[in-house]
Amino acid sequence: MRFTSLIVELVRARPRLIFWIVVLAQAALWLLLPWLLYGSPPGDVATVLAFGREYQVGTHLGPPLAFWLADVAFRLSGNHMFGVYLLAQLCFILTFWALFRLGRAMVGAQQAVLAVLLTATITAFSFPGAELGPLIVARPLWALILLHTWEIVGQGRRRAWFWLPVEIGLLILTTSAALPLLAMLAVFVLATAKGRRALLSTDPLYAAVVVIVLVLPYWIWLIRANALALPSLPAVAEFQERLLGWGGLLAGLLFALSGVALLLIFNSRALDRKSEDPPLIFRPPVDPFARLFVYVFALAPPVLLSFIAALFGQDQVIGGDGIALLLAGLAVIVAAGDLIALRRQQHLRSVWLVIMAAPIVVVLGMTFIQPWIGSTEVKTSLPARDIGRFFGENFERRTGRPLAAVAGDPHLATLIGFGASSRPHVMFDATPQETPWITPKLFTENGGVVVWRAADTVGTPPADILKRFPGLVPEVPRSFERLVKGRQALVRIGWGIVRPQTPRQSSR
């Protein structure tokens, strides 16, 4: 008698239910883990908040949308990181919702769920779950662009023209990868008969106007900042090194697909020694144009984005793995055929769960085990709230003013930037052109706190900080407990106050 697991039956009968269970469970997990385990945000989230607080039209970090959204989420949650983590997971949910809808339109709901399950393994290996920034905000926008492009070109739905230009404009305002992505999209549309036919209306004119209106302020900033020029191409002697770097980036993308490869191996016919027929997941025949669409946007982005990154000497794929590999799972499903056999169901379920649990084990290990066995500092173990509260309250107690600005060590400064109740400006004093909202002159006039990693109990400032802040009087260093201390020493922070030079204006 053939055995069919409950999950397979649910995939057949209730594919939408399986989709929401998988996506919401993963989103809830990556919402709770950082919220409960991290004393300070992962990755560059603190920097994202520091820049988002200023609402600049553009910075050296790129387009502004992700930074603005991070600050809005932080403020709406009562200046708590929970709102930032929640926004990251909402981006994750929206990305997979768009992917599921695209898959359902091409291969049916049942096989679309399988594509989501495969893509979830890629997420586990390569997509940072809580590090809100341009890479995370761009994913749902690119997924929605692909979905609505397909509805326009492949299905002839003109109503999708209402959403597509808005998403294109927001993508340009989110990531520098927007231009190569949109160039690929334009080439595909112009190179296919259906694509050219979809342009034979007034809808593209409406779309162009909407995009121009959305991105015009950012383009004006680019022109004024002289930031339109591309980075210089490498010398001929460096091309071999850059090609090796491209190979390394492609190898990283292939590693991100290792979960998919592992599931395909366990589902292969060669390992199935049972004589009984496996359960099948059926779909209607796939439209050849849909097959072409999926293959192009599953293969072109990882190749092109990794090549651009390697050409300009970057160590990460332009736009991130999440955009480059977005359609990889759907491409595997499209290539698998109209009937997909699910062999060794218990093993498939176990392997999938192990893949999904692997990053959780890594996070738990980095949080609770790394401090006991390693000497490398875990950045998420720093008590950002305690650090920000201490320096904010001390500055206000000594000067009678809320802390307005913080400088010194960039990482500590960004933690205080969101940890202090006054949300002070962050100044990168070593590179002040990167934080144009506050100059060294304004910092001296309005006052602030300068922080650094103290190497002794005296708290002597580093020579470069003393050079930039002559006359700075160091205070007694402040030590903070880590989330998990382990074998590591306390976090000792040296600091000094730059007192305001302008008199305080009294309010009536």
TrEMBL record:
Alphabetically ordered keywords of this record: Cell membrane, Glycosyltransferase, Membrane, Transferase, Transmembrane, Transmembrane helix
Q: Which InterPro entries match?
A: LipidA_mod_glycosyltrf_83, RgtA/B/C-like
Q: How does the protein's chain sit in the membrane according to the entry? A: Multi-pass membrane protein
Record keyword Nuclease present:
no
Which GO molecular-function terms appear in the entry? pentosyltransferase activity
- Entry protein name: Glycosyltransferase family 39 protein
Location of the protein in the cell: Cell membrane
One biological process GO term for this chain? lipopolysaccharide biosynthetic process
Concerning PANTHER family, the annotation shows: BLL5595 PROTEIN (PTHR33908:SF9), MANNOSYLTRANSFERASE YKCB-RELATED (PTHR33908)
* Highest rank taxon of the organism: Bacteria
Q: What's the main place this protein lives?
A: membrane
TM region(s), chain numbering = 17-38, 82-100, 112-130, 168-193, 205-223, 243-266, 292-311, 323-342, 351-373
> Per the database record, which ranges form the Glycosyltransferase RgtA/B/C/D-like domain?
63-221
Q: Name one GO cellular component term.
A: plasma membrane
Lineage of source species: Bacteria, Pseudomonadati, Pseudomonadota, Alphaproteobacteria, Hyphomicrobiales
Q: Which residues form a coiled coil?
A: none
